[in-house]
Amino acid sequence: MKGRASSDLGELTAFYLATNPSVARARLFGFDCLRAGTAVFIKVHAGSLVMKFPAPRLAHLVEVGRAKPYHRRSGQPFKEWAVVLETDPRALIALAEEARRFATST
After folding, report:
1. At what angle do helices 55-63 and 89-105 cross, to 10 degrees?
2. Residues 80, 2: contact at Cβ < 8 Å?
3. Which residues contact 52 (CB under 8 A, 6 or more apart)?
4. pLDDT recorded at residue 3
5. Residues 99/50, Cβ–Cβ less than 8 Å
6. How far apart are CA 85 and CA 54, in angstroms?
């Protein structure tokens, strides 16, 4: 794991270590990720930060240019996962919180 996504995941990990003890860094299927309990809500894949959102929210984030669809190898997009394009640390934390709340509610 290298680059901006690695740095962003590190900053998000530090935020959650300080604010939410239920969140832990983990590896799942070879991906570095953050999970709350058993629910993964952020992962790093191919140098990109990927977060889990409800489909309508994901569509909005894509529409306004803050995210792009996260695709399977076949080219089909995952219904609830998006590559986050946001770079502002406060905005990343806000999106991470949305992703955490969604992942733990499903």
Report:
1. 160
2. no
3. 40, 41, 42, 80, 81, 99, 102, 103
4. 62
5. no
6. 17
Average pLDDT over residues 28-54: 90
What pLDDT does 19 receive? 87
The CATH number given to 4-105 is 3.30.1460.30
Tokens 């946001």, residue located: 86
Long-range CB contact pairs, 40-44, < 8 A, 24+? 40/103, 41/96, 41/99, 41/100, 41/102, 41/103, 41/104, 42/9, 42/12, 42/96, 42/99, 44/1, 44/5, 44/6, 44/9
Across 1-10, 25-34, 35-44, 68-77, least confident range: 1-10
pLDDT digits (tens, 9 = 90+) for 38-50: 999 999 888 889 9
* DSSP-assigned beta bridge partners for residue 69: 82
Task: Report how far Cα 17 is from the mean position of its chain's Cα atoms.
Answer: 16
Domain boundary assignment for the chain = 4-105
Say how far apart CA 72 and CA 32 lie, in whole Å.
Answer: 17
